[in-house]
Write a structure and sequence with these properties.
Layout: H1 3-6, H2 11-17, H3 32-38, E1 42-44, E2 58-61, E3 64-67, E4 76-78, E5 84-86, H4 94-99, H5 101-104, H6 108-114, H7 123-133, H8 137-149, E6 156-157, E7 162-166, E8 169-173, E9 176-180, E10 193-199, H9 200-214, H10 220-236, H11 243-258, E11 264-273, E12 276-288, H12 289-296, E13 310-316, H13 323-331, H14 337-340, H15 346-357
Helix pairs in contact: 7-8, 9-10
């Protein structure tokens, strides 16, 4: 049965069609098969269009902007052909230059004391560096809190637990939940969103613990079954972990209870990994209300719109100085990105278009 036809069936119908498969299981045991039947596969997110730099000669190194000047220095001159030559001072005989070394050379010790200290990383860049390099999960969570609290549209951690609802079942999912708007446009109503963070190592540990606790008696046979099943589950989650989708659905359900009446709920999951200190993955989904109804009423046949895609985008930690900005850009909905872009050249395009439409008076 194709994924398209399975999406038109109720959850109970899917269970009857696949009696040999364990479909109603804990989210830690979800696989890509569950996502295909539910109609929520992983896809690669489209690339983010970067804002143009302020100047083609400006560079940024460790948070410090360096401007390269195109003007010649005071000690340079130009010949009539336009080539840059050394100054008249450098044309003096070498003997004159050697004789002035002792008299013109400054005191090295005094000069070292007057030098400015080397530029240090900004605060948000240090947070990104610690987030990338730390192996302690509590430290990583603290850095994520700091990165989201101190920005133009802050995201605050909430005490509300992340709970997945299925009929009368309530399954608590462990993650750091941030109830927030990823951005705020003064002229528009803020776009509601939820953000959560967790590390891949915590998912692996929780999955291992859950499987071990499910073994009633621990012996050589159950240990072998446990190792085999855990290996199969972990191997199937190498690209993207299906547990992330459960968190996205749980956050959308929480939004639906907090703000009923909406047709789509936009949610994000930030996933780091202690074994990968170079990048993290951002998962974004726009979950329709019809999909949530499919979980709330598993015996009803859902409409064709009861499906969504989970977009996965990789974001590098380095350069640390721009990590917070790139993280915010990845969370901004595409429909309002151009509103937020201060360097947008729409006005210039409209001006040139109007100029082309204007009749020539000359």
């Amino acid at each position: 049965m194709t994924a398209q036809s399975s999406e038109s069936l109720s959850l109970r119908q899917l269970q009857r069609l696949h009696p040999r498969e364990r479909l109603q299981v804990h989210p830690l045991l979800w696989t890509s098969r569950h996502l295909d039947l539910l109609g929520c596969p992983f896809v690669d997110a489209p690339p983010i269009t970067a804002s143009p730099p302020r100047s083609s000669q400006d560079t940024c190194r460790d948070g410090v902007r360096i401007v390269a000047s195109s003007k010649p220095s005071l000690h340079e001159t130009h010949d009539p052909a336009g080539r840059r030559n050394a100054s008249c001072r450098s044309r003096r005989p070498l003997s004159d230059l050697d004789s002035n070394i002792g008299t013109n050379q400054p005191n090295t010790k005094q000069h070292a004391l007057t030098l400015p200290p080397p530029p240090s990383l900004p605060e948000h860049a240090r947070w990104a560096k610690v987030l990338a390099g730390s192996s302690i999960l509590s430290v990583k969570e603290a850095m994520v809190r700091a990165l989201f609290l101190k920005r133009s549209a802050p995201a605050k951690p909430t005490s509300t637990p992340c709970v997945l609802h299925f009929e009368t079942n309530r399954i608590r999912l462990r993650c750091l939940l941030l109830g927030a708007n990823p951005t705020s446009v003064p002229s528009q109503k803020p776009t509601e969103s939820s953000i959560s963070y967790l590390d891949a190592s915590s998912i692996r540990d929780a999955r291992s613990k859950y499987l071990k606790e499910s073994c009633q008696a621990w012996n050589n046979i159950t240990r072998s079954l446990y190792n085999t099943r855990l290996s199969v589950l972990q191997r199937g989650q190498r690209a993207h972990d299906s547990y992330v989708t459960a968190i996205l659905i749980a956050m959308a359900q929480h939004q639906c209870r907090s703000a009923p009446g909406k047709s789509i709920y936009r949610v994000h999951v930030l996933l780091s990994d202690v074994d990968n200190k170079s990048r993290m993955i951002i998962y974004t989904a726009e979950i329709p209300n019809s999909f949530l109804d499919k979980l709330a009423h598993p015996r009803r046949r859902p409409p064709p719109s009861a499906a969504f895609q989970v977009q996965a985008r990789t974001i590098e930690y380095e350069p640390y100085a721009t990590f917070q900005q790139r993280l915010s850009q990845a969370l901004i909905p595409c429909s309002i990105k151009r509103v937020l872009d201060p360097d947008s050249d729409n006005d210039d395009d409209d001006h040139h278009a109007e100029k082309r439409r204007r009749p020539d008076n000359g």
